[in-house]
Design brief:
The complex is a heterodimer. By secondary structure, chain A is of the alpha/beta class. In chain A, about 35% of the residues lie in helices and about 20% in strands. In chain A, β7, α5 (about 165-185) and β8 (about 190-195) form a beta-alpha-beta unit. The chains are: A alpha/beta, B alpha/beta. Chains A and B meet through β4, α4, α5, α6 and α7 of A and α7, α8, α9, α10 and α14 of B.
Amino acid sequence: MWFRREAPRRKVQIAEGLWVKCDSCKEIIYRVEVERAGHVCPKCRYPFRITARDRLAQLVDPGSFEERNAGLTSADPLRFRDTKKYPDRLKAAREKTNLDEAVITGLGRIGGFPAAVAVFEFAFLGGSMGSVVGEKLARAIELAIDKHVPVVIVSASGGARMQEGILSLMQMAKTSAALERLGRSGLPYLSVLTDPTTGGVTASFAMLGDVILAEPRALIGFAGPRVIAETIRQPLPDGFQRSEFLLEHGQIDLIVERRDLKDTLTRLLAFFADQPDSVV
Amino acid sequence: MPDGLDFEQRLVALENELADLRAQEDSPQARERIARREEQLARERRRVYAGLTAWQRTQVARHPRRPHTRDLCRLLFDDFIELHGDRLYGDDPAIVGGLARFEGRSVVVVGHQKGRDTREKLARNFGMPHPEGYRKALRLLDLAEKFGKPVVTFVDTPGAYPGIGAEERGQAEAIARNLRAMAALRTPILAIVTGEGGSGGALAIGMGNRVLMLENSVYSVISPEGCAAILWGDAAKAPDAAELMRITATDLLGLGVIDEIVPEPLGGAHRDWEGTAEHMREALRRHLDALRGKSPDELLAERYEKFRRIGAFEEASLPPPR
C-alpha cells in the first residue's frame, strides 16, 4: 500500500549542488561521480533511486525503445478526496515527473534481444498501482504474447493505489492472469525488484518472475516494515526485508549490481532465446 | 445477545424483552404482547438495516457471531472433510479447506477462518493467514483441478498477516502464486465474500469465475482503520475512510468488481444463520449449475476477461510513434 505521509524523502539530493551525501554510508561524494556510476554511491555502492527514464536509458539499447499506451490516464472512479482531491494529486505527480503515470511500457531491445519492457517511476505517487498501471502492464504482457517476445518488468512501488480503492486491488488479479497467459505461451518473464517493492505489487506480478532479480539492499516485502513493527510490537531484525534477506530466505534468485544489470538481463534473455545466431 | 453493536442497541433491547416475554407463562394477554413486540422488532430491524453506513456494515461484517467458514460448511454441505497442511511447512488454522458434498455433488472448499472466543481467535490468528495458509489453499486448488471438481471459497479476513515469519517464508510470493494459479485453474471457481475482504490476503483466494458478496460484507484494498491512519494519522476516523473507499457490496457491484449480492436475513447474518444459509444455498446451486456446463477453456477465458475488464481509466488517442 503506497501513501505519502509528508514531503518526499530523497535518498540523495542529486539535483542541487556539486556534492551529495550518501544515505547509506553518509559519505560526502562528488555528484558527477555518482551520476557516472549510474546513480550508485562510489564509496559503498549503494544504488540510489533513479527515474524510470534513467532506468530505461541504462537497460534498453539506444534508439530501440518504442513506448506504448502512454496516453492512458487515471480516472477518479471513487471521487476520492482526503486532504487533497485525487485528480490534484495526479496533476502534481505529472508535473513533478513529467510522466502521465507510474509506469512506462513499450517494446525495446536489451543487448540485442527484443522484449516488452515496463519500468516503474517511484516518484509518481510512490509507483503505486491503480487502473492505469494494471492496464498498461496487462497490455504490455499481451503485446509480448502477440510479438512472441519475453517480458522484463523493473518494479519500484509501494503497492496498490489507495485512491482507486478496490479497483487497484483487482489489478493484482489482472496482471497475474496476464502473466499466466504469457507463461502458457512459453515466454519468459524477468522480474527486477528495486528499492522499494512492497504491497500488492510484490504480492502479484513482481514475485511471479521466471527469474527474480533484485538490486542490492532494496526494500522488498509484502507488508511495510512500519506496519509489521506496529503489529508485532518488537524491533525488526537487521537487514529485514532487504534484498540480501530475501536471497537468504530463498525468495529471489539473484542480487545484481546496477552496473551489471543490463549484462545479466542480456545473458538471461540469451538463455531463453537459445538461438546462437541471434546473440549480438 | 451480548454482542450488540452500538447502532443495534434498541434492537437488542427489544430482542431481550421479547425473550423475557416468551419465557413467561402462556396466556392470551402474553401472546398478544409478544405479537406486538414482534411487529415492533421487525419494524425496527427494517429501519436500522435499511440505512446502514459503510462503517456500520463493516461492524456487521466483523460481528463476532457472524457465521464463519466452518459454520457455513456445516450449514451448507451434506458432508465436509477438512484437510490440513501445505505439505511444505505447516498447517495454518487461519485458512481451512477440504472436501465437501453440496446437494449431491462434490466441491472443494477453501475459506479464511476467524475464531469466536479469545482462545480460538488467537489460535486462528484473527483470520490472518501466513504463507502456509495460502499454500494449503493452493494445494487444494490443485487437487480440485486434478479431479475436475469445482472450487468454492469463502473470503473473510482482515488481511494477510504482517509478521517476520510471514515475510521470511514469502507472504507476497504465496499470494502472487495463488493469483496465477486461480487464473490457470481448469475447473469452476465460485468466490463468496462472507465477512471481511481484507486486501491481497482476501483476493488470494478470491479470483472466481463468479465473485459474490453477502449483503453486509465489505471488501477493500486496505482496512478503514489503516486508510484513516494513513490519510489523517488517526485510526479513529475509520468511519470516514469506510465511506470514502466504497467498500460495501452495493459499491462493488456498481464498480463491476462483483457479480451479485447474496441477501442476508433482516438484522444481519449473525441473527439468523439458517436464513443466511438458505440464501447462500440458492446462489451456490444456481452458479455451480451455470458453471458446470462450461468447458475448461471457456472457464479460463471467462475468468480472464472478467478481471481483465476491471478498472477505470481514460485513453487519449496519440499520434503514431515517429
